[in-house]
Specification:
This protein is mainly alpha-helical and about 170 residues long. Helices cover about 60% and strands about 5% of the residues. It starts with a strand and ends with a helix. One of its GO terms (molecular function) is sulfotransferase activity.
Amino acid sequence: ILLLIRNPKDVATSFYHFSNDMSPLPSYETWDDFFIAFMTKKMPWGCYFEYLSKWNKYADNENIMTITYEELKENAVLGVKNIAAFFGIPLTEKELQSVVEKSSFQSMKKNSHKTHGAFGNVLFRKGAVSDWKNLFNEGQNEKMDKAFEEHMGGTKLGTKLKYEVYCKA
């Protein structure tokens, strides 16, 4: 199992835009309204911190590889190599480069109409790391950091996310 996790602040930011662009989901008049719903576990798919906590129980399982979105954005070649090795898939250099190119956010966004139809515009917005800085105010940032520490502090997945997000930023 490949477990891809992402900075909770960017998850919230992405889900805010996704919710407002996806009519079956609740939409929010303001970012502040969304943030309150996100932090009080009123999301259609539940609480992201609880999701991470549940997966944390399996973090040491040899059949599970955890990688962060941030890792893949920072070094896609290394990420793809590690994923291929985990699944026992040998790749030539040409195949590796092809996978990296075709799985880049830019490439997937460009081809999203072919692969996902009209839904592609909803799924592929920016793909950026740290886009949360465009929405979060200082108080929201502090609340999210506190919630992260309460739910994920000292856990294997929490440590991995914290390193990728805070130590490499």
